[in-house]
């Protein structure tokens, strides 16, 4: 639904660049905090095609996408809650 509403694709430097691989990892029971960090950091290598960073053109290179970062925090909190039997 995030992709449909925002018309974002993987590689657009949006939260989709974290959500898509996290969903796959969840399906395969392979999600770890380290993998989440990896997905977040990969957004720094991308040129923004959507959102406010897109207006900065190449100025977005080297910067982590804020939506990806906050999504990563959410997923890490969910992993921690599961680990501590809060869910």
Query: Structural class of the helix and strand makeup?
Result: mainly alpha
The coarse silhouette is elongated
Number of separate strands:
0
- Percent of residues in helices comes to 40-55%
Individual helix count: 4
**Biggest sheet details:** none
The CATH class assignment is: Mainly Alpha
What proportion strand? under 5%
Distance between the termini: 24 Å
Keywords: Pyruvate, Transferase
Domain DhaL: 1-80
Protein name: Phospho-enol-pyruvate-dihydroxy-acetone-phospho transferase, ADP-binding subunit DhaL
EC number: 2.7.-.-, 2.7.1.-
Briefly summarize what is shown.
52% of the residues lie in helices and 0% in strands. It has 87 residues and is mostly helical.
Walkthrough of the structure:
- The structure is a single chain.
- This protein is an all-alpha fold and 87 residues long.
- The protein has a single domain, classed as DhaL domain (Serine Threonine Protein Phosphatase 5, Tetratricopeptide repeat).
- Helix content is 52%, strand content 0%.
- The chain contains four helices and no strands.
- The chain has helices at 2-6, 16-27, 33-42, 66-83.
- α2 packs antiparallel against α3 (33-42), α2 packs parallel to α4 (66-83) and α3 packs antiparallel against α4 (66-83).
- The longest helix is centred in the C-terminal third of the chain and has 18 residues, at 66-83.
- It is elongated and about 45 Å long.
- The relative contact order is 0.18.
């Amino acid at each position: 639904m995030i992709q449909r509403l925002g018309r974002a694709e993987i590689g657009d430097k949006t939260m989709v660049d974290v959500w898509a691989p996290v969903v796959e990892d969840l399906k395969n029971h392979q999600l770890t905090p380290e993998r989440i960090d990896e997905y977040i950091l990969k957004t720094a290598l991308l040129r923004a095609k959507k959102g406010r960073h897109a207006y900065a053109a190449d100025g977005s290179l080297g910067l982590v996408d804020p939506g990806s970062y906050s999504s990563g925090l959410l997923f890490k909190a969910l992993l921690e809650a599961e680990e501590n039997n809060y869910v």
